[in-house]
Amino acid sequence: MSKILSIALNPAIDISSDADTVCHTHKTRTHNQRQHAGGGGVNVARVIVELGGNCELLYLSGGATGTLLEAMLKPLDVRQHRFGIHDPVRVAYNVRELSTNLEYRFVPEGPLVTEEELAPVFDLLETSDADYVVASGSLPRGVGEDIYARMADIASRNNARFILDTSGEALHVTLVKAKVFLVKPSLGELQSFVGKKVDHENAGEVAQAIVRSGAAQYIAVTLGGEGAILVSADRVHRLPAINVPVQSAVGAGDSFVAGMTWSLAEGHDIGEAFRFGLAAGAAAVMTAGTELCLRDDVLRLYGAIKG
């Protein structure tokens, strides 16, 4: 089994609740509160553990909320590398309005992190023996937009495959300055990267142009209710969405990335990993709030995928 290192530079304490109706000004009474350690890289590690993978977690943590995050992560069966920062870990909040089944997601920008606080992170990466390095999530304030590109270069020198799931300028800079093994943008993130209209019909062609430029070996574009596309230099592979009851979209993209990474680490080819990622993402929306996917659901859905 290959080793996976999941990186969470901007972890969060994710709180989710239900409310009958969400309204402005007046108090919105909530119930069914749930809380989990979250943020992209943390969610990836949680899913890989759920699937039975060999994963390490690198994360930043500070303040009173950081102490709480560490306590929430303690039961997670992974080797953990905590790096202290001065500012507190962010708290994200998600409310599902039962009357409409709509979700309202409140996601803070996160702590201010200095280059000095990041230095030991790069020291660990230089000595890591991971076969797959997954960088997932937004960047905290103060961090250079090229940080994932720098990490990708280190992974390349260590003969590790670098997998990226981020957005905005961090995505743009990484794909311009470094080559990654796999990147997973949503349709909106792909459109933002290329700076022109992208839809379900031309997404494969647009992503393939990026692959052929040398920025990534593979791109997996998630299309929400339309499924996903896996793109290589010579193929565009499209799979439809899996029809499942939807509870929450929280963590679906992270579950998709984790499912693909776990499958690759198990020795499966990229096509099988793509199918497994789609199953993991679909399984995640079946669970409420921030609970992510369950192994039995993932395996059942994976077994039902054709193509």
Automatic annotation (TrEMBL):
Swiss-Prot/TrEMBL keywords: ATP-binding, Kinase, Nucleotide-binding, Transferase
Q: Which residues form the Carbohydrate kinase PfkB domain?
A: 13-294
**InterPro entries the record matches:** Carboh/pur_kinase_PfkB_CS, PfkB_dom, Ribokinase-like, Tagatose/fructose_Pkinase
Which Gene3D superfamilies does the record cross-reference, listed alphabetically?
Answer: 3.40.1190.20
Example GO molecular function: 6-phosphofructokinase activity
PROSITE patterns of this UniProt entry? PFKB_KINASES_1
One GO cellular component term: cytosol
Q: Which NCBIfam families match?
A: 1-PFK
Tell me its family: Belongs to the carbohydrate kinase PfkB family.
- This protein's species is Ciceribacter naphthalenivorans
What protein does this entry describe?
Phosphofructokinase
**Keyword match tRNA-binding:** no
